[in-house]
Design goal:
Helix content is about 25%, strand content about 30%. β1 and β2 (about 35-40) form a beta hairpin. The chain folds into two domains: about 10-105, Translation factors (Elongation Factor Tu (Ef-tu), domain 3, Beta Barrel), CATH 2.40.30.10; about 115-265, Rossmann fold. It contains nine helices and eleven strands. The chain is an alpha/beta fold and about 270 residues long. α5 (about 165-175) crosses α6. Strands 4-3-6-1-2-5 form a six-stranded antiparallel β-sheet. Bound molecules: adenosine-2'-5'-diphosphate. The site of adenosine-2'-5'-diphosphate has 15 residues, from β8, α7 and α9.
């Protein structure tokens, strides 16, 4: 029996507070990255940018990991963007899911990458590396983001060009979308860079902030706490280094109960 297709005995494996949802779409981008969509429970509410625990009934005990929801809060389905780790407790199985399979989800969303945790500003930067783009795939498709900020700049940096496919595709689709295109067409910008392959822009996002290349290429002034707000999502090292640069520019870290000028959250790792 396929470990991720437990339709028969799944009922026993769904823990309290969790739900079993049906996969509706799977798209693989590289050997390391894929995206999937699944049904959304009618009672499930979340704020764009939040994460949930998703899992699979593997063996005796379900295995859960934190995943940012990549779809916006108004979407009738849920979307996720994942890495594939060959020996990852969850992703070695999750990468094999097919349409019709069941994925478990705990119905308790949480997170700091939400519009409520930032004070209003003119421009919102969303800095991401790798799967750290996921919460921003949600936020750039939420009208509330554009009600709060005039300009939305999402940056995505990866090792290789092929890893940028999801962000490019999501931003292009948002600009064409009947609902969100009205806001995104003129006010959303995607800035991408690679670090281990030649590309139109190369270098870590931290380097590009520090040497000013990011701002020159975008045609905007350097970071200014009077107008700029930011969200950061990536590895621990990327969060630490990017946060230090924002603080050096005079921005203060906020939280749900204490909105300020920037917020951070670790991207899903294994
Ligand atoms: P690099 O190739 O120079 O390590 P990873 O897959 O390891 O999470 O990396 C995703 C992207 O994040 C890569 O482009 C990587 O660059 C970059 N990165 C890794 N560490 C940092 C950091 N401390 N600050 C900014 N970018 C980073």
């Amino acid at each position: 029996m396929n470990v991720v297709n437990l339709a028969g005995d799944l009922a026993d494996a769904v823990p309290a507070g969790a739900t079993a949802e049906t996969v509706t779409e799977v798209q693989h981008y590289t050997d390391d990255l894929f995206r999937f969509r699944m049904t959304r429970p009618a009672s499930f509410r979340f704020r764009s940018g939040e994460f949930v625990m998703i899992g699979l009934a593997i063996g005796e005990k379900p295995v859960f990991r934190a995943y940012s929801i990549a779809s916006p809060s108004w979407d009738e389905e849920l979307e996720f963007f994942s890495i594939k780790v060959p020996d990852g407790p969850l992703t070695q199985h999750l990468q094999k899911i097919k349409v019709g399979d069941k994925v478990l989800m705990k119905k308790k969303p949480t997170g700091t990458l939400v519009n409520d945790a930032l004070i209003t500003g003119k421009r919102l930067y969303m800095f991401s590396t790798g799967t750290g783009f996921a919460p921003f795939a949600s936020l750039i498709r939420d009208p509330e983001t554009y009600e709060k900020f005039d300009e939305v700049i999402v940056t995505h940096s990866c090792r290789f060009v092929a890893e940028l496919a999801y962000s490019k595709e999501t931003v292009a689709a948002a600009k064409e979308d009947p609902l969100i295109g009205e806001y995104a067409a003129d006010r959303l910008r995607l800035f991408t860079s690679t670090t281990r392959e030649p590309y139109e822009t190369t270098g870590r996002i931290t380097t590009l902030i520090e040497n000013g290349e990011l701002f020159r290429k975008l045609g905007v002034l350097p970071l200014d706490p009077a107008v700029d707000r930011a969200m950061i999502c990536g590895s621990m090292a990327m969060l630490k280094d990017t946060k230090a640069l924002l603080e050096a520019a005079g921005l203060t870290e906020g939280a749900n109960n204490r909105p300020a000028e920037f917020v951070i959250e670790r991207a899903f790792v294994g």
